[in-house]
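2024-03-11 09:14:02 INFO worker-7 job=invfold-0412 stage=load source=structure_tokens
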């Protein structure tokens, strides 16, 4: 069953700015899986598995959603990891944003609620996922040091391009994302 999520996309400036850390992470492909550049996005709200009975009404309603927060600028700043740098499972780049992204996030949360997707309890922390550590793998000391050394690095300042409702199909080779509906910011 496909999974749905709302995400923000950006122009190629961000991907180009992230080439150095992505290249470095690529040297650890035996222990981590980098996110392919065409799949990079900022998740605003993950809905999860949705049958056609729910997906259809969400798509229809989203076509009437209006963007009030445009443009939304941000800076890609600092590498880090979940759950923590010393023991990473997900490596990401942080985003410095203004209040507009939080307003948009709240609006998407409210939009999703009537379809059975309650707002998240945790605060919204926009980030760009760069790689995931493979199961039963551990990050070597050099990788952890690289993340620590780049905690404050500013990679670029740019703007979000679109708000997109994506469908995600998980495959053995990685996820396949399909844009169901989008609107330009």
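2024-03-11 09:14:09 INFO worker-7 stage=emit residues=185
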């Amino acid at each position: 069953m496909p999974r749905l999520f709302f995400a923000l996309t950006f122009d190629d400036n961000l991907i180009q700015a992230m080439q150095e850390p992505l290249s470095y992470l690529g040297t650890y492909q035996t222990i981590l899986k980098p996110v392919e550049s065409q799949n990079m996005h900022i998740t605003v709200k993950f809905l999860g598995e949705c049958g056609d009975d729910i997906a259809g009404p969400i798509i229809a309603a989203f076509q009437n959603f209006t963007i009030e927060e445009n443009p939304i600028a941000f800076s890609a700043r600092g590498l880090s990891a979940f759950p923590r740098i010393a023991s990473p499972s997900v490596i990401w780049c942080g985003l410095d944003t203004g209040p507009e992204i939080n307003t948009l996030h709240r609006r998407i949360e409210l939009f999703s609620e009537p379809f059975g997707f309650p707002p998240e309890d945790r605060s919204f922390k926009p980030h760009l996922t760069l790689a995931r550590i493979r199961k039963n793998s551990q990050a070597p000391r050099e990788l952890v040091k690289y993340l620590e050394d780049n905690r404050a690095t500013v990679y670029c300042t740019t703007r979000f391009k679109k708000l997109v409702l994506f469908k995600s199909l998980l495959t053995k080779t990685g996820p396949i994302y399909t844009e169901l509906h989008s609107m330009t910011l």
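2024-03-11 09:14:09 INFO worker-7 stage=report msg="The helical segments are 12-17, 19-26, 52-62, 99-112, 141-149."
2024-03-11 09:14:10 INFO worker-7 job finished
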